[in-house]
Write a structure and sequence with these properties.
CATH architecture of the largest domain: 3-Layer(aba) Sandwich
Strand content: 5-15%
CATH superfamily of the largest domain: P-loop containing nucleotide triphosphate hydrolases
CATH topology of the largest domain: Rossmann fold
CATH class of the largest domain: Alpha Beta
Structural class: alpha/beta
Number of helices: 21
Largest sheet: 7 strands, parallel
């Protein structure tokens, strides 16, 4: 059966999107593949279609619970019953049942942490997988070294002869990240399909402010005057709550989203946003990956992200339907200092390295460092991984380099903020690609008209009694 026939039979499409067929053909030939396809270009079909070609399970390593749950739900809605997510939502009985019958599933979603559990590893060794997929593979480089080191161990599990092909999927990756993906997944001369990261329907804007509080006032006015749906990113849970409450007070349908909220609350908020009940989300970077909402019209960054890769991932959540969308970056003097502090906050220190050594010398389990509240959970995960890979001297050197690299990442972000060149050109070139053309309303530097990109909102429709919206904003901001 031809690939196009399978495509139509299972997905109802007559033709492939750019890159999909090229990737699938290489996988059918047994080749490892790295595929960089922009958000909305159908990355998931690159492993779902082979799942109907091969008579063996496809294993998909996925970074977030919300992402894998969403993918499982979508596949079940399309009629695929042989799909499961092995994650912490399963109780022990459900997990054991799933492991016993794992061979009967066509698609198995799993997190890196669950993948490396001994019981799971042993069960997977008994299976003949048709394909190994690492979704959002840029996380290997962006998260593996300093946040979730289990990402660096994925390749170890599949480092054997005659293994199944590995497919690494992402929307964006620099040459360095591509190198990390190949190395840590132990890929064998992979075929690379790299689509341009440029999104012509995504229009780039920036606003510079003297004072931080001016940014919040601008956000409120802007959201009142323009249509969503939209996401406002900020780097603090407190700010997410504060901005959300201010918008609620002027009649905007909005909710805050961050890791401090209960899992069920986050799922409920996400579902309301997907359904359109909530028009705006004010979030930390905990929100977005795996949120498949096609009609997001605006992304606003209240504070600058810690690196350009994160910025690109976050603005890529707008305009997935192909229609115009707007990305606005707000900056006030000193934002970069806060970004650097956040970027390095969870790195282990020299003190932690020596403390870890002392635990070993006393024949105590270094994990007690975390139990004794001498180090954060994230910092311990990172420290424990590297202390079991390298000598203390090398670990200190590595941690110092991580810190320097993170500072440099913020500096690169600042160059983007301050550029007087085309913002689109700078962004695309950061990922080692040329800019082939510039759309109308390209960016702030080239010239941009908001009203040609996003619809203006009718202020009169906002339900605020006994006050004009402008006076209401002033009252809120000064605390009356």
């Amino acid at each position: 059966m031809q690939l196009e026939e399978i495509l139509y039979k299972h997905f109802g499409h007559r033709s492939f999107r750019p890159g999909q067929k090229e990737v699938i053909e290489r996988l059918v030939d047994g080749k490892d593949v790295i595929a960089l396809l922009p958000t909305g270009m159908g990355k998931s079909l690159c492993y779902q279609l082979p799942g109907y070609l091969f008579n063996a399970p496809v294993l998909i390593v996925s970074p977030l619970l919300s992402l894998m749950q969403d993918q499982v739900t979508q596949m079940k809605l399309l009629g695929e019953k042989r799909v499961i997510a092995l994650n912490s939502f399963l109780n022990q009985q459900q997990k054991q049942y799933a492991l016993n019958y794992l061979h009967q599933y066509r698609f198995i979603f799993i997190s890196p942490e669950m993948l490396l559990q001994q019981q799971v590893k042993e069960r997977l060794k008994q299976l003949k997988l048709s394909l190994i997929v690492v979704d959002e593979a840029h996380c290997i480089s962006q998260w593996g070294f300093d946040f979730r080191p289990d990402y660096l161990r994925i390749g170890e599990l599949f480092d054997y002869e005659n293994r199944s092909p590995i497919l690494a999927l992402s929307a964006t990756a620099t040459n360095k990240v591509l190198g990390d993906i190949k190395s840590y997944l132990k890929m064998n001369n992979p075929f690379q399909y790299i689509h341009s990261v440029d999104r012509p329907n995504l229009h780039l804007s920036k606003r510079l402010f003297q004072h931080h509080e001016d940014k919040v006032e601008w956000i409120i006015n802007h959201v009142l005057e323009t249509e969503g749906p939209g996401i406002i990113y900020t780097q603090s849970r407190t700010k997410a709550e504060s901005i959300s409450n201010l918008l609620l007070n002027v009649g905007i349908s909005v909710a805050s989203y961050h890791a401090g909220k209960e899992t069920l609350d986050r799922q409920f908020i996400q579902q309301q946003f997907l359904e359109g009940t909530i028009k705006w989300i004010v979030a930390t970077n905990a929100f977005g990956m795996g949120v498949h909402k096609d009609n997001v019209r605006q992304i606003i960054h209240h504070t600058i992200p810690s690196n350009i890769a994160n910025y690109m991932q976050e603005i890529g959540r707008a305009g997935r339907d192909g229609n115009d969308a707007l990305a606005i970056l707000l900056y006030a003097e000193g934002d970069e200092h806060f970004a650097k502090m956040l970027a390095t906050d969870d790195l282990p220190s020299e003190h932690h390295v020596h403390l870890y050594e002392n635990y070993r010398l006393r024949n105590e389990n270094p994990h007690n460092m975390f139990q004794n509240e001498e180090i954060s959970e994230t910092a311990f995960r990172v420290l424990d991984y590297w202390m079991n890979q390298e000598t203390s001297a090398f670990v200190l050197q590595r941690l110092n380099k991580m810190r320097i690299d993170k500072m440099q990442d913020v500096n690169e972000m600042m160059k983007f903020v301050q550029t007087e060149d085309c913002m689109r050109k700078v962004l695309v070139q950061y990922f080692g690609q040329p800019l082939e053309s510039r759309p109308n309303n390209c960016c702030e530097v080239c010239g941009i008209q908001y009203d040609q990109i996003i619809n203006q909102r009718q202020i009169e429709e906002i339900p605020i009694e006994n006050n004009s919206w402008k006076k209401r904003i002033e009252s809120i901001l000064i605390g009356n």
